[in-house]
Amino acid sequence: MTDDASTPTTPATPAPESITTIACVGIGTIGGGWAAYFLARGYRVQAWDPSPEAGNRVRRLIDAAWPALTQLGLSENADPENISVHTDLAEALDGAQFVQESAPEVLEMKQQLLADIDAHAADGVVIASSTSGYSMTEMAVQAANPERLVVGHPFNPPYLIPLVEVVGGEATDPAAVQWASQWYEHLGKSVITMDREVPGFIANRLQEALWREALHMVDNGEATVEQIDRSITDGPGLRWPLQGPMLTFHLAGGPGGMAHMLDHFGPSLKSPWTRLEAPELTDELRESVVAGCDEEAAGRSVPDLVAERDRAIIAVRQVIDQLRRDAA
Amino acid sequence: MTDDASTPTTPATPAPESITTIACVGIGTIGGGWAAYFLARGYRVQAWDPSPEAGNRVRRLIDAAWPALTQLGLSENADPENISVHTDLAEALDGAQFVQESAPEVLEMKQQLLADIDAHAADGVVIASSTSGYSMTEMAVQAANPERLVVGHPFNPPYLIPLVEVVGGEATDPAAVQWASQWYEHLGKSVITMDREVPGFIANRLQEALWREALHMVDNGEATVEQIDRSITDGPGLRWPLQGPMLTFHLAGGPGGMAHMLDHFGPSLKSPWTRLEAPELTDELRESVVAGCDEEAAGRSVPDLVAERDRAIIAVRQVIDQLRRDAA
User: Fold this and answer.
1) Same structural domain for residues B262 and B166?
2) Within a domain: residue B2?
3) Can you name the residues that pair with A85 across neighbouring β-strands?
4) pLDDT tens across A100-135, in order?
5) Domain span at residue B72?
6) Which of B138, B210, B258, B287 to mutate to test the interface with A (most CBs of A within 10 A)?
7) DSSP state of A15
8) Are A151 and A258 members of one domain?
9) Nearest residue in chain A measured CA to CA from B325
10) What is d(CA A257, CA A97) in angstroms, rounded to the nearest whole number?
11) Do A30 and A165 have their domain in common?
12) Distance (Å, rounded) from C-alpha B110 to C-alpha A13?
C-alpha cells in the first residue's frame, strides 16, 4: 500500500519501543502477575477489576513479586507504585497502548469483556487475552474489531516464566499476531507464535497429557501423589530446564542421535507405557523429528549436548539442594 | 521365624554398609554411567561386557563423568581406576556383593543373562536390572532363583539423576525389593518403591504421555520440534525441578490449593487439550489427590510454596542463562 492520502488508512499500531502505558484487565493471579512484570519493565499500568478487593490484592502480589523481579534485574523507570486500579473500564483503557486481558476462564465473560475492551481502546491498539483454554475465534464473536484481538498465553507466574504463546483467531489480522509477537519479545519474553489455533496451545497440551496419565495412575493405585511428583523432580524434571523432551531423546540415541533413537526405540511407541496412543511413526514423521533436532542442535554434536546437559543438571541440583536446605 | 538351627536358612544378603564390590553387567551408556557412579561412591567395580571395545568406551565415559561427580562430591576411597573389565561373566561376578545388569533392551537377551548371572553370583546377592521397559516377571523366567531379582530402573545419566524405581516380579521375595530400596538409598539415590508392576513404571509413563502428544503435534503440523522443546524449557520445565506436576497444580488453585483447583478446573479434564482421555474425576480420586498434596505440602501453606517456587525458578533461570552464555 502506498502513502497516498486518498487511501483510507488503518490507524497505526504503536511501535513496541514507543509504548509507555499498558492496561491490565482482570488482576487475579495471572493478571496481577502480568502487572508486576510490566511494572518491572518500566511501564505504567492501568488496571481494571470489578472486585473491591482487587486493589489490595494486587498490591500484595506486586510486593511479593518485587524481590524476585529485582533479582532478575529491573528496567530503568521500574516502579512498583506506577499502577492505578479502576472499576471503570473506560478509565483503565484511557491512553493505554496495549491491553492484556486476564479475566476468569468463563467464555461468556471473555466474549463480553473483549467486546467492551474493543469498544473503549484507542484505534490500532492490540488486545491480548491470557486465556489458557479458549480460542480467539470463539472469544471474539461479539467484538466490533476482531482483527486486533490475539491470544497471548503466559505461564504462571507470568513475572518469572518467560514463555508466551501467541495465536490469532479466524478474524484476527496476521499483522496483529506478528505485532504481538514482536512486542512480547521486546518485553523479554520467550515467544512461540502459532500459525493456527490448537486447543490448549502447545505447552498445556504436553502438560495436560502428563497430568492425565498421573491422574490415571493415582486412580488405579499405581502411584501416590508424592511418587508422581518425585519421579519428575528427581528424574526428567532435572533435564527439562535446559533441554526439552525432543532434545532429551536426541541424546538418548547415543552418537546416532534422534535418528538412531527412533529406529531403535520406535517399537516402544506400541508399548502400553501410557494410556495415550502414539501416532504411526511414518518416514515423514521420522524425518520431521530428526530434522528438527538437527536444527535445534545447530552443529553441536551429541557429546557436546551431553556435556551441556551434565553441567546443567549439576548446577540445577546444587541450586535446588541449597533451596531445600534453606527451607528446612 | 525363630533362630532354630534345624530350620533351613536363606543365605544372608550383605548389609548395604558392608558392601565393597559391585558387578556391572553390560557397560554401555547406562551400565557405564552406573559404573562411574559406583566408583565415585568409593566402590570397587567389576564389569562384564562382550564387546572388545567396552573397556575403552567405559574408560572414556568415566573420564567424561568424573569432573561432574567430583563437583557433586566424591566419597572416601573414590577412585576412577578401581574398575576391571571382563569378558568372562564368572570372573566379573566373583566376590561381587551386588549386581546391576544394564544389557540392551532385548527380552531374550535379558532372560538368558539374568539366568546366567543368577547361576554365578554368590548366594544371597541381590541382582538388579536397569530395564526401562520389561517387567521382572517376564525377565526372570529362566532364572533358578528369581526371588533375588529386582528392577532398579535409573534415569540417564545414572551418575547425575537421583531417581531409581524399584519393583519386583511375581517370583521376587519382597525382602529383596526392600533390601534393594535400602541399598540405593544408602548409595544416595532418590528411591521410589512400587508395590506392583506397571508397564513403564512411573516416570517413563509420564514422560511417554508427553512425548506421544508431542509426536502427534509434529505429525499434524501443529508445532515444530523447536517449539515443543522451548515450550517446556521456557515454560513448565522451569518449575519441575522443585515441584512436580501435582504440587504445581496445588499452587495453581490459589490459597484453596488442589481442592479448589479440581473443583474449579475439573471440567477442563473433558477438554480436547491432549489426545489422552482423562479418568472420571470421582469423589474418591479427588480425595486421593487433595490428601496427597496436603501430605507433600507438610504444613506449608500455598503462599509458602509459591515463595519456594519463585526462589527456585529465579535460581534455575540464572543457572541456565549463565550456562547458555558460557556455551555461546
Assistant:
1) no
2) no
3) A47
4) 999 999 999 999 999 999 999 999 999 999 999 899
5) 16-193
6) B210
7) P
8) no
9) A308
10) 47
11) yes
12) 65
